[in-house]
Here is the input.
Amino acid sequence: SRIYQYVNRMGCVCVTTNYDELLNPHDIGRQNDGSTTRAGVRRITEKEEFKSGLVGQGAVIHLHGSVENQETMIVSTREHLEHYADQNLRGFLEELFRSDLAWFHNGSGWL
Here is the structure.
């Protein structure tokens, strides 16, 4: 879809509840010599990785897991309730949304 092309060019932190890996933001890193390189995408799928200090521009946060790491997928109502009751996750989201990082949400049905 063309929307992914636009979002991927933004290079911001992408917060998604989707399981797919279509979000692939361009994080352009500036080198000491002034040149730029395209950095790899950091995908965060496991709750233990949800720490704002680990998140940088170009990261993709899969709040409900990823199809590429199926054991992380949050599917049932019970799993959703337990997931969002976790204080570490709630603290991470509050810190991320209050930070100076540019972020984009893709998906629906959370919080």
Summary: The longest strand covers residues 13-16.
